[in-house]
Amino acid sequence: MMSLEECLSPHVAMTQRDHTRLKWSKPYRTSDRIRPVDWTCACRATVYELCEGRGQAFIRRIVQFDRKQEIHETSRWSLAEARVIWAALLSGSAW
Hints:
By secondary structure, the chain is α+β, with helices and mostly antiparallel strands. It has a domain at 29-90. The protein is built from 1 helix and 5 strands, in the order βββββα. It has one helix at 79-91; strands at 35-39, 46-53, 56-64, 69-73, 77-78. β2 and β3 (56-64) form a beta hairpin. The longest helix has 13 residues, at 79-91. The two termini are 25 Å apart.
């Protein structure tokens, strides 16, 4: 297992008491033009990706189990709004 000093991607901070709760749903059918543009470190069991495409964005949550993954996504937002929510997720202000 990597130490935090060796990780290249950010980690989600501990959830703050007054955090915003995100609504997670099963993945939508996405087009080829959707791509992850930022992500959290894969050293944790849960990895988050900020995905963008066609002028919209959403956050994907991937929970890694021994031999499978469970994937959920938020609803779509504008690029600017998604980046604000992504920053909130990383800081522990949203979950």
